[in-house]
Specification:
This protein has about 140 residues and is an alpha+beta fold. It contains eight helices and two strands. Bound molecules: guanosine-5'-diphosphate and magnesium ion (MG).
Length: about 140
């Protein structure tokens, strides 16, 4: 999910492009405004933490772009591409290091396990919004 700062700062294309160039296949994509209820569900693991309210305020403050990507070990690959939670601790070359400065504005979210990915994709997409197609370069990526 491209967070509000990623959208408002005009980084949608840059972020999607990094995922596509790696070889990940985008199978669902849309821009939405998350309501607080959905945001709290997305971040249910963090309920009770001191930054929780700030986090919910942040992700509901402007539109976000949600997507589902497919590929070999997609969850792990996306987590590597986005980098560590604090953009200063993230490695150069990651989205968070290259494009963000602070943990409270780290421009992108990604599920941290296959189990969370399954839960989170259902939060944002119906089955009929998930596309089935083949990238023309698939045989050259794998
Ligand atoms: N303001 C603030 N936000 C935080 C802090 N820690 C985490 N967050 C936010 O909460 C999100 C979820 O935290 P976490 O699951 O630990 O990190 P992620 O999986 O790498 O996004 C982060 O991406 C940040 O947007 C913090 O200490 N302060
Ligand atoms: Mg997380």
């Amino acid at each position: 999910m491209i967070k509000p700062d990623g959208v408002v700062r005009g980084l949608i294309g840059e972020i999607i492009s990094r995922l596509e160039r790696k070889g990940l296949k985008i199978v669902a994509l849309k821009m939405i405004k998350i309501d607080r209820k959905k945001a709290e569900k997305l971040y249910e693991q963090h309920k009770g933490k001191d930054f929780f309210k700030e986090l919910i305020d942040y992700v509901t403050s402007a539109p976000v772009v949600v997507m589902i990507v497919e590929g070999r070990d997609a969850t792990k690959v996306v987590r590597k591409i986005i980098g560590k939670t604090d953009p200063i601790e993230a490695e150069p070359g990651t989205i968070r290091f290259d494009l963000a400065m602070t943990i409270g504005k780290n421009i992108i979210h990604a599920a941290d396990s296959k189990e969370r990915a399954d839960i989170e994709m259902k939060l944002f997409f119906n089955d009929n919004e998930i596309m089935n197609y083949k990238r023309v370069d698939e045989n050259w990526i794998y």
